[in-house]
Amino acid sequence: MPRPSLLLAALSAATTALAHSHLAHILINGALYHGFDPRPDKSNPPHRVAWTTSNLDDGYVPSSSYTHPDIACHISGTSVPAHAPVRPGDIIHVQWNGWPRDHQAPLLSYLAPCVGTSDGCASVDKAALAWTKIDDSAPVVVDQRAGAPGTWSSHVMIARNNSWGVRVPRGTPGGAYVLRHEAIALHFAKDVGSAQSYPLCMNLWVDADEGGRTGGQRVPGLDLEGGVVATELYGAEDPGILIDVFKVLTKTYAVPGPTLARGAEPVPHSEQIMSMSRTEGVPVRVVGTGTVPWVESTARVFSG
Ligand SMILES: *[C@@H]1O[C@H](CO)[C@@H](O)[C@H](O)[C@H]1NC(C)=O
Ligand SMILES: [Cu+2]
């Protein structure tokens, strides 16, 4: 019979494994598009818009691997043919498969255009994707007291039924994009290499003119010029990555990664809402400069 301390250790290890997460699905104007569940006993629909990954324990990419290509779209991230159609200005509700309260995390979102392919993002080279930050919504909501890690964006996400709204900027040019939504769990981040990134990649088809939404409405364009490749997003010792969240923050939390792009339109905490699914979304495949519906999914109506 194991000693109680070993039993406790085993139990907490099991809890930690369960506590990891993945993309359950995204909701756009009430239409549901499928995420990806990497656990070995799960099956995933072929028309999912989320990239396939091999983090079989629902785990993360540690900050010690920030120069490895896995930081782009999670471990062995591989694109899929389906894209969720979306218009500039729409809010994408990214719904996680739950999130543990003790994984204090900022939530960051990036867009990368898929260029030079005839199938949108399906065959894109992930190492070449240039990521532009479109959301870094105020990661810490309240000041911290010593020993208390404060309230983070992840807590707001949990309270909104594990979902986070990401607005596609109104000035986003039309075309295929990968949306990279990421939580960086900081509960062990006081040690170098121990922050935990959970990058979720999903394919989008932005239905707009070159200059974003037009039709008489003048909006600033989204500045995609400063995009950076994933392996250059973060360093293991960046101030927002190597941090003891249980100490009082003496400075404003330094959000990791590049600055927010001009034209980005993050949804503030106060406007984060829950979204209910009403229908099963019909993803599209990209063919040249246009799209065709992913027909296998059209017959099904979501009953959740
Ligand atoms: C929370 O999300 C789940 C999964 O999508 C859904 O079934 C449930 O209805 C949602 N609850 C609320 C209150 O929105
Ligand atoms: Cu975890």
TrEMBL record:
It catalyses: [(1->4)-beta-D-glucosyl]n+m + reduced acceptor + O2 = 4-dehydro-beta-D-glucosyl-[(1->4)-beta-D-glucosyl]n-1 + [(1->4)-beta-D-glucosyl]m + acceptor + H2O. Residues 20-249 form the Auxiliary Activity family 9 catalytic domain. Pfam families: AA9. The keyword Cell inner membrane does not apply. InterPro entries: AA9, AA9_LPMO. Its main location: secreted. GO terms for biological process: cellulose catabolic process. Residues 1-19 form the signal peptide. Keywords: Carbohydrate metabolism, Cellulose degradation, Copper, Disulfide bond, Hydrolase, Metal-binding, Monooxygenase, Oxidoreductase, Polysaccharide degradation, Secreted, Signal. Belongs to the polysaccharide monooxygenase AA9 family. This is lytic cellulose monooxygenase (C4-dehydrogenating). It comes from Schizothecium vesticola.
